[in-house]
Amino acid sequence: MDFQFIKPLLKEDAKGKIVMLVMDGLGGLPLTPEGWTELETAQTPNMDALAAKSSLGLHHSVPYGITPGSGQAHLGLFGYDPVKYEIGRGVLSALGVDFDLGPNDVAARGNFCTVDENGVITDRRAGRIPTEVGERLCNLLKEKVQLPGVELFLTPEKEYRFVFVLRAEGLSGDVSDTDPQAVGKKAHIATATSPAGEHTAELIRDFVRQGNEILKNEFPANSFVLRGFAGMPAWPKFPEVWGIKSLAIAMYPMYRGVSKVVGMTVMPPAESMADEITMLEQNWSDYDFFFVHIKKTDSYGEDGNFEGKVHIIEEVDALLPRILALNPDVLIITGDHSTPAKLKSHSWHPIPTMLYAKDARPDGITSFGERACIQGSLGSRFDATELMPMALALAGRLEKYGA
Amino acid sequence: MDFQFIKPLLKEDAKGKIVMLVMDGLGGLPLTPEGWTELETAQTPNMDALAAKSSLGLHHSVPYGITPGSGQAHLGLFGYDPVKYEIGRGVLSALGVDFDLGPNDVAARGNFCTVDENGVITDRRAGRIPTEVGERLCNLLKEKVQLPGVELFLTPEKEYRFVFVLRAEGLSGDVSDTDPQAVGKKAHIATATSPAGEHTAELIRDFVRQGNEILKNEFPANSFVLRGFAGMPAWPKFPEVWGIKSLAIAMYPMYRGVSKVVGMTVMPPAESMADEITMLEQNWSDYDFFFVHIKKTDSYGEDGNFEGKVHIIEEVDALLPRILALNPDVLIITGDHSTPAKLKSHSWHPIPTMLYAKDARPDGITSFGERACIQGSLGSRFDATELMPMALALAGRLEKYGA
Description:
The structure is a homodimer.
Chain A: H1 3-6, E1 18-23, H2 38-41, H3 45-51, E2 54-60, H4 70-77, H5 89-96, E3 105-115, E4 121-123, H6 131-144, E5 151-156, E6 161-167, H7 198-215, E7 223-231, H8 238-241, E8 246-249, H9 253-261, E9 265-266, H10 273-282, E10 289-294, H11 296-303, H12 306-325, E11 330-334, E12 351-357, H13 370-374, E13 379-383, H14 387-394
Parallel strand pairs in A: 1-10, 1-11, 2-13, 8-9, 8-10
Antiparallel strand pairs in A: 2-12, 3-4, 3-6, 3-7, 5-6, 11-12
Helix pairs in contact in A: 5-9, 6-7, 10-12, 11-12
């Protein structure tokens, strides 16, 4: 959807409310060809009843066959083609540690590593140093490096990983990686990839020089590499694009982060799924669009825990009456990508989707699952970016195109 | 799929093996509206059993409603949009006679024709001279024409048709046709369509001048016309595009040729379908992608022989256990286009497709046929170029896009 196309169609006085309930990694696979997927296995009486009143289908957010990361997949659900709206690695890393990335920031993903006397990388993970060592080294660098006129943030992640952020006016993410992503090579020298990146590249080279001097006796973490320099993208904002006051409710930093990138209001971290629904209830009158994110379906999928994933889906089903009691005009239930327990990883398989609305056209399907959704009216492989326009239409928020 | 998009996603150390089994002209039509298609009629217990473990759908390789040639349709299956990757008529003709077209060659399709005393074409097929006459005239021209510094090849096809090839450094296909494709007109004068074609155009004009002099007493084949000048296209190569060591197995020149154009390794002509499967078995450990082409489904379709086509499909079904015994990670069974016996020609109708893999998401469909595939998760009209990315994903050969 071209955002400029939809802009003149947005009704100014529209009131319809939309809930987008995303179970991360919802799509699954049967463990044997004769078996059922996680969603098909789960006892979901509430979702099944809702399916009978809904339009169903399966979506994908990136080209068919490609497996998306979570950040990219959520952009698709929000209506932003993730191939067109590229989000930098550094930004995703910063979002993942809940760093409050601002408009003057440039972020990168950092790895502590081991180098030999010639500066050649011998271990890209510095022997997987404990997280406490990573924390100490981040603090050491932050304390000792001098970059006049620039604020420096170093936030440890797990083990050898950290997030690097520079804050100042006039910075740019147009700088090449120092990380060669291979052992047996020296770190690259950070170089501007456009004139706008010259000053930032210089600052990074200065940081690298000072940092290596400070770490030289810290074997095995006696050096570091940086990659994915990027600033907050200046994209059209979700609330303006779709003309809807929008709230994001999520437990994990990445999902609050990507919601923030597109300009939604973001709630503080929820503590449980039930807590998320309570947040939804408490903020019901103040917003018109609610993104509610369920993480554990994906976590159990990644762990290969089929039963665990089934159980989370059943818990979400049990919470559904509380959402329906709010009487939303539109309720989307879907995932961002598939995370089949069978594969213990994200996959490219399309994601079952239910689009409920008072004015939805029911498909005559009475259960919610991968195979049921193939037969749905949304199609077995529609584009995730088509969800928002359909939801807005069903919420009575769009004018007719033409006379 | 943008090849540049997929390049960074290719796993370097991937091992998954893919077989693409193409029954040429597989798609069919029932002879009466109540009847079954060729594929639906065929007894295919092995394919039906595999369908239950597969994702199904129907593909097309060119815009909907358009009937593709075989070369174009195969490009689609290989992931090359045949509208974007135009292949010259001359190249297709050369491939069709198994001419080993090289990088310094320019090929064209030739017709012997009849002209009157003013050079006006009176018969574009020279009274359909016997093939032996065509052969004799090709040899005559090859022997007598003098083009210093240039190698000339003239390969007879059937009757009045031949393939014309010039070989030298610095040639170009940027030359206009001499064939006016109508009677009552003189042959056009070959003209460069870009500065790169100037030298080649001059050589062709010289060839035409000498050739007409040599043929002037050979009524009815007293002249000739040439069209579709083209060299081997400099396209991205299949093994690099998809990061997979690739082997083509086919009985007919055209299919080996189009495989060669995209850079696959090509086996010598097989002698039978069983022989093709033997070649697959013998080369199993040396390649990771295998294109296996079955010609006779199309031949019987073109002949209007419904039962013959049914029988070939059944023979292929009987060979399937030998392919499955190799334990491929992914097996695609499809056609390149439809050739319904009812129509005795290629048609635009979409082509039934089965995508089997250990990690395929089964669609709950237990037979392989046009109507069954409509209900499949790949959709009833997906783009042929999407097959390769899906196959690579299911073979575990693709990294995630994004974090």
